[in-house]
Amino acid sequence: MSLQKHAVQILGLYLGVLLGSMLILHLWPGESGLWATTGLAVLGALIAWRCDRRLVVPNTIEAPGVASAQTRVVWGVSGVAIVLIVELLGTWLEAVLFRTAAPTLTQATSALHSVPFYALALVWALPVLEEYAFRRVIFGNLAGITSVFGAALISGLLFALATDPAHWLTGTLVGITYAYLYKQTGSVQTPLIAHIGMLALTLGYAMWH
Predict the structure, then answer these.
(1) Is the whole model's pTM more than 0.85, yes or no?
(2) Does some domain include residue 115?
(3) Which residue range forms the structural domain that includes residue 133?
Protein backbone atom coordinates (compact mmCIF):
# COMPACT_ATOMS: atom_id res chain seq x y z
CA MET A 1 0.00 0.00 0.00
CA SER A 2 1.27 3.49 -0.87
CA LEU A 3 1.74 6.22 1.71
CA GLN A 4 -1.00 8.29 0.04
CA LYS A 5 -3.58 5.50 0.11
CA HIS A 6 -2.63 4.64 3.69
CA ALA A 7 -3.04 8.29 4.75
CA VAL A 8 -6.48 8.56 3.15
CA GLN A 9 -7.69 5.34 4.76
CA ILE A 10 -6.40 6.13 8.26
CA LEU A 11 -7.62 9.74 8.27
CA GLY A 12 -10.97 8.64 6.84
CA LEU A 13 -11.38 6.05 9.58
CA TYR A 14 -10.43 8.53 12.30
CA LEU A 15 -12.85 11.18 11.05
CA GLY A 16 -15.58 8.57 10.57
CA VAL A 17 -15.25 7.35 14.15
CA LEU A 18 -14.98 10.90 15.54
CA LEU A 19 -18.02 12.26 13.71
CA GLY A 20 -19.96 9.01 14.07
CA SER A 21 -19.41 8.99 17.84
CA MET A 22 -20.58 12.59 18.14
CA LEU A 23 -23.74 11.77 16.16
CA ILE A 24 -24.46 8.61 18.15
CA LEU A 25 -24.08 10.36 21.52
CA HIS A 26 -26.28 13.21 20.29
CA LEU A 27 -29.05 10.84 19.22
CA TRP A 28 -28.64 8.36 22.10
CA PRO A 29 -27.03 10.19 25.04
CA GLY A 30 -27.54 7.34 27.50
CA GLU A 31 -25.99 3.91 27.98
CA SER A 32 -27.09 2.68 24.56
CA GLY A 33 -25.11 5.50 22.96
CA LEU A 34 -22.00 4.62 24.96
CA TRP A 35 -22.25 0.98 23.93
CA ALA A 36 -22.70 1.95 20.28
CA THR A 37 -19.80 4.40 20.46
CA THR A 38 -17.57 1.75 21.99
CA GLY A 39 -18.44 -0.69 19.23
CA LEU A 40 -17.78 1.91 16.53
CA ALA A 41 -14.42 2.95 18.04
CA VAL A 42 -13.23 -0.65 18.45
CA LEU A 43 -14.27 -1.54 14.90
CA GLY A 44 -12.54 1.57 13.55
CA ALA A 45 -9.34 0.80 15.47
CA LEU A 46 -9.27 -2.80 14.23
CA ILE A 47 -9.76 -1.73 10.62
CA ALA A 48 -7.10 0.97 11.02
CA TRP A 49 -4.70 -1.61 12.49
CA ARG A 50 -5.31 -3.89 9.48
CA CYS A 51 -4.76 -1.01 7.05
CA ASP A 52 -1.59 -0.01 8.87
CA ARG A 53 -0.24 -3.56 8.70
CA ARG A 54 -0.52 -3.42 4.90
CA LEU A 55 1.74 -0.38 4.61
CA VAL A 56 5.19 -1.49 3.53
CA VAL A 57 6.66 1.90 2.59
CA PRO A 58 8.29 3.66 5.58
CA ASN A 59 7.64 7.35 6.11
CA THR A 60 10.37 9.89 6.84
CA ILE A 61 10.45 9.09 10.58
CA GLU A 62 10.67 5.33 10.04
CA ALA A 63 13.10 5.36 7.08
CA PRO A 64 16.31 5.57 9.22
CA GLY A 65 15.27 2.37 10.98
CA VAL A 66 13.11 1.07 13.82
CA ALA A 67 14.50 0.52 17.31
CA SER A 68 14.40 -2.89 18.97
CA ALA A 69 11.27 -4.06 20.75
CA GLN A 70 12.95 -3.59 24.13
CA THR A 71 13.93 0.00 23.30
CA ARG A 72 10.43 0.79 22.08
CA VAL A 73 8.91 -0.52 25.31
CA VAL A 74 11.42 1.36 27.51
CA TRP A 75 10.76 4.63 25.69
CA GLY A 76 7.00 4.00 25.74
CA VAL A 77 6.86 3.31 29.48
CA SER A 78 9.18 6.24 30.23
CA GLY A 79 6.99 8.32 27.95
CA VAL A 80 4.06 7.94 30.33
CA ALA A 81 5.92 9.96 32.97
CA ILE A 82 7.20 12.44 30.37
CA VAL A 83 3.71 13.07 28.99
CA LEU A 84 2.23 13.51 32.47
CA ILE A 85 4.90 16.12 33.31
CA VAL A 86 4.28 17.94 30.02
CA GLU A 87 0.53 17.88 30.65
CA LEU A 88 1.01 19.42 34.11
CA LEU A 89 3.28 22.08 32.59
CA GLY A 90 0.71 22.85 29.90
CA THR A 91 -2.08 23.14 32.45
CA TRP A 92 0.04 25.55 34.51
CA LEU A 93 0.88 27.67 31.46
CA GLU A 94 -2.79 27.88 30.47
CA ALA A 95 -3.72 29.00 33.98
CA VAL A 96 -1.00 31.68 33.97
CA LEU A 97 -1.42 32.92 30.40
CA PHE A 98 -5.14 32.50 29.77
CA ARG A 99 -6.61 31.90 33.25
CA THR A 100 -8.04 28.65 31.92
CA ALA A 101 -9.32 26.16 34.47
CA ALA A 102 -7.63 22.78 34.58
CA PRO A 103 -9.34 20.11 32.46
CA THR A 104 -11.63 17.73 34.31
CA LEU A 105 -12.49 14.12 33.59
CA THR A 106 -15.97 14.29 35.10
CA GLN A 107 -17.76 13.41 31.86
CA ALA A 108 -15.44 10.49 31.10
CA THR A 109 -15.60 9.04 34.61
CA SER A 110 -19.38 9.40 34.67
CA ALA A 111 -19.58 7.47 31.41
CA LEU A 112 -17.27 4.77 32.76
CA HIS A 113 -19.34 4.37 35.91
CA SER A 114 -22.37 3.91 33.69
CA VAL A 115 -20.73 1.62 31.10
CA PRO A 116 -17.33 0.30 32.29
CA PHE A 117 -16.77 -1.36 28.91
CA TYR A 118 -16.52 2.17 27.47
CA ALA A 119 -12.93 2.13 28.81
CA LEU A 120 -12.05 -0.02 25.80
CA ALA A 121 -12.88 2.90 23.54
CA LEU A 122 -11.24 5.59 25.69
CA VAL A 123 -8.06 3.77 26.67
CA TRP A 124 -7.37 1.59 23.62
CA ALA A 125 -9.39 2.26 20.46
CA LEU A 126 -9.21 6.06 20.36
CA PRO A 127 -5.46 6.21 21.19
CA VAL A 128 -4.82 3.71 18.38
CA LEU A 129 -6.73 5.84 15.89
CA GLU A 130 -5.14 9.07 17.14
CA GLU A 131 -1.57 7.75 17.01
CA TYR A 132 -2.02 6.33 13.53
CA ALA A 133 -3.67 9.55 12.29
CA PHE A 134 -1.70 12.31 13.99
CA ARG A 135 1.70 10.68 14.45
CA ARG A 136 2.21 8.08 11.72
CA VAL A 137 0.24 9.83 8.98
CA ILE A 138 0.36 13.58 9.63
CA PHE A 139 3.65 13.91 11.51
CA GLY A 140 5.38 11.10 9.64
CA ASN A 141 4.50 12.45 6.20
CA LEU A 142 4.88 16.15 6.98
CA ALA A 143 8.38 15.56 8.35
CA GLY A 144 9.55 14.96 4.78
CA ILE A 145 8.10 18.30 3.67
CA THR A 146 8.75 20.60 6.62
CA SER A 147 11.32 20.25 9.38
CA VAL A 148 10.74 17.56 11.99
CA PHE A 149 9.85 20.23 14.57
CA GLY A 150 7.48 21.93 12.14
CA ALA A 151 5.73 18.64 11.48
CA ALA A 152 5.54 17.95 15.23
CA LEU A 153 4.07 21.40 15.87
CA ILE A 154 1.44 21.13 13.12
CA SER A 155 0.42 17.59 14.02
CA GLY A 156 0.39 18.50 17.72
CA LEU A 157 -1.88 21.48 17.14
CA LEU A 158 -4.27 19.46 14.97
CA PHE A 159 -4.30 16.75 17.64
CA ALA A 160 -5.17 19.33 20.31
CA LEU A 161 -7.96 20.92 18.25
CA ALA A 162 -9.47 17.51 17.49
CA THR A 163 -9.35 16.18 21.05
CA ASP A 164 -9.78 19.20 23.39
CA PRO A 165 -9.79 22.64 21.70
CA ALA A 166 -10.50 24.40 25.00
CA HIS A 167 -7.04 23.30 26.18
CA TRP A 168 -5.23 23.61 22.87
CA LEU A 169 -1.90 24.63 24.38
CA THR A 170 -1.66 21.60 26.65
CA GLY A 171 -2.87 19.34 23.86
CA THR A 172 -0.29 20.75 21.45
CA LEU A 173 2.56 20.21 23.92
CA VAL A 174 1.39 16.66 24.58
CA GLY A 175 1.11 16.01 20.84
CA ILE A 176 4.66 17.27 20.30
CA THR A 177 5.83 14.95 23.08
CA TYR A 178 4.20 11.95 21.41
CA ALA A 179 5.91 12.95 18.15
CA TYR A 180 9.24 13.11 20.00
CA LEU A 181 8.73 9.58 21.32
CA TYR A 182 7.91 8.38 17.81
CA LYS A 183 11.04 10.02 16.41
CA GLN A 184 13.24 8.42 19.09
CA THR A 185 12.38 4.86 18.06
CA GLY A 186 10.94 5.14 14.55
CA SER A 187 7.89 3.17 15.67
CA VAL A 188 4.38 4.41 16.36
CA GLN A 189 4.15 1.71 19.02
CA THR A 190 6.21 3.91 21.34
CA PRO A 191 3.84 6.90 21.56
CA LEU A 192 0.94 4.45 21.59
CA ILE A 193 2.29 2.77 24.74
CA ALA A 194 2.76 6.18 26.36
CA HIS A 195 -0.70 7.36 25.25
CA ILE A 196 -2.50 4.28 26.57
CA GLY A 197 -0.49 4.30 29.80
CA MET A 198 -1.16 7.98 30.45
CA LEU A 199 -4.91 7.60 29.88
CA ALA A 200 -5.09 4.47 32.02
CA LEU A 201 -3.33 6.22 34.91
CA THR A 202 -5.27 9.48 34.76
CA LEU A 203 -8.66 7.86 34.29
CA GLY A 204 -7.92 5.23 36.93
CA TYR A 205 -6.90 7.92 39.41
CA ALA A 206 -9.99 9.99 38.61
CA MET A 207 -12.27 6.96 39.01
CA TRP A 208 -10.99 6.08 42.48
CA HIS A 209 -10.65 9.62 43.83
Answers:
(1) yes
(2) yes
(3) 59-208
Q: For residue 80, is it within any domain? A: yes
In-domain check, residue 88: yes
Cβ–Cβ < 8 Å for 59, 140? yes
- Which amino acid appears at position 123 of this protein? V
Q: Contacts by 146-154 with C-beta closer than 8 Å and gap 24+?
A: 148/61, 148/183, 151/179, 152/176, 152/179, 152/180, 152/183
Tens of pLDDT, residue by residue over 81-113, are 999 999 999 999 999 999 988 787 888 989 999
pLDDT digits (tens, 9 = 90+) for 144-163: 899 999 999 999 999 999 99
Residue 167 included in any domain: yes
The count of structural domains within the chain is 1
Max Cα-Cα span within the chain: 48
